[in-house]
Amino acid sequence: MVHFLHLLDIQATLVNRLPSNLDSQRDIVRQQFMARLIGNEIACRNILRMSPYAFALLCQRLRGTGILKDYRRATVQEQVVKFLHVLGQNFHTWALGFYFQHSGETVSQHFHNVLRAVISLEGELLKQPTGSEVPLEIQNSQRFYPYFKIDYTSIYLYIHDCIGAIDGTHIRVKVPKEQAARFHGRKEWPTQNVLATCSFDMKFTYVLPGWEGTASDSRILKNTLTREDRLLIPQGKFYLVDAGFPLRSGLLTPYRGVRYHLKKYSRRGPENAKELFNHRHASLRNVIERAFGVLKKRFPIIVSGTEPCYSFKTMIEIVLTYCILHNFLMSVDPNENLINEVDMELQLEDSNSVGRDGVGIDVDSRVGEMIRNNIAQNMWIDHQSHR
Questions:
Q1: β-strand partners of 355
Q2: H or E segment at 196?
Q3: pLDDT (tens digit, 9 = 90+) per residue, 182-216?
Q4: What is the DSSP letter of 151?
Q5: What is the DSSP letter of 235?
């Protein structure tokens, strides 16, 4: 509401200064509106969810795609501002048409132009890791290195490196009534379950939106490993996952029936190898929770209970766009205040142990168990020797 009133104030001020020609009036309103918005650091961050510097770089990047271009009465910058109003404030096209003196149809066209341009950057900004290098966040930490980089050989085990974390999140969608039951999962309203992986610098590396809210993370993960645009887990590499996923050589879960969440260890430290493993697993895996947290802080409409005004298909594209923009901004405008807010909130979350252990009987599950046990034992031996 504060942002809405701020926009009204800007427009009211500008309208009072209009010349006589209608088209010229509209051009001047838009130009002065843009100047006041982009020239104000606080307004730009509050409304567009990024700094003026990051906005300028984004416009330059999108112009470079060749998809987005200037129109006679709508520059690339103006089209991107409209787009970010929708993503950051959930504005309807008719409302933006009022502010920018354009029809709702024109605003919708500009929105979809920018949407296509952002999605075209997916190959550049959403890259799956090859595992050729040890992440600095592991290499530079005595708590994680060398345990999450295994350099030894046995019948099954050889150079197993951790390359990131996997988790899912739910985002509200609008679907026909006859399909709503499939999308009613954890929330009171229909949601899509979005599965994502991220690297330890909090950038998303793979995103799969569009699954119905009732689908489990493990079911979605199984699909990601076989689909055409599949999640790639290079040989000898693994992701950290929570207990809702299966234990595999490429997916390391925490020990079940053992304390896991970080808050619980603040009161009493790890007392055995499994607890120590779970504590460090949680510390490293929470990068995906932090990434989702920053994404939702920057674009709060993701966690809003407000029904989206776009179709389910478009919302799938918008979720992908959020993640692409997140990666771009983590490079040029990471916003430490947002990151600190997310870290504080994660520290206050409830901390319970995970369920009872249940290792699968197939060979790959056994390999995963061997990898996990080896890491836990090596951690515990070193932990004991440094007491």
A1: none
A2: strand 191-198
A3: 998 777 889 999 999 999 999 999 999 999 999 99
A4: E
A5: T
Q: Collapsing DSSP states into helix, strand and coil, what is residue 166?
A: strand
User: How far, in Å, CA of 46 to CA of 41, rounded?
Assistant: 9
Please give the helix or strand (H or E) that residue 293 lies within, else none.
helix 273-298
281 phi, psi to nearest 5 deg: -60, -45
Average pLDDT on 277-290 reads 95
Task: Tell whether the model's pLDDT for residue 64 goes beyond 60.
Answer: yes
Q: pLDDT for 215-272, tens place per residue?
A: 998 899 999 999 999 999 998 899 999 999 999 999 999 999 888 766 666 677 788 9
Angle, nearest 10°, between helix axes 41-48 and 52-63? 60
- Helix (H/G/I), strand (E/B), else coil: 1: coil
- Contact between 274 and 258 under an 8 Å Cβ cutoff? The reply is yes
Rounded to the nearest angstrom, the gap between the alpha carbon of residue 302 and the centroid of all alpha carbons in its chain is 10
Query: Which pTM does this prediction carry?
Result: 0.88
Enter the tokens of residue 53: 């510097």
The pair of three-digit structure tokens given for residue 145, joined into one six-digit string: 């290195």
Q: Mean pLDDT score of the chain, rounded to an integer?
A: 87
**Segment 100-109 mean pLDDT:** 88
Contact residues for 38 (Cβ-Cβ < 8 A; gap 6+): 44, 52, 55, 56, 77, 81
How many residues appear in the chain?
387
* Residue in the block written with tokens 């490429």: 250
Residue 277 corresponds to which tokens in the numbers above?
């493993």
Q: What element of type H or E holds 317?
A: helix 312-332
Residue 272 CA to chain centroid, in angstroms?
34
Closest CA to 319 of 168, 186, 200: 168
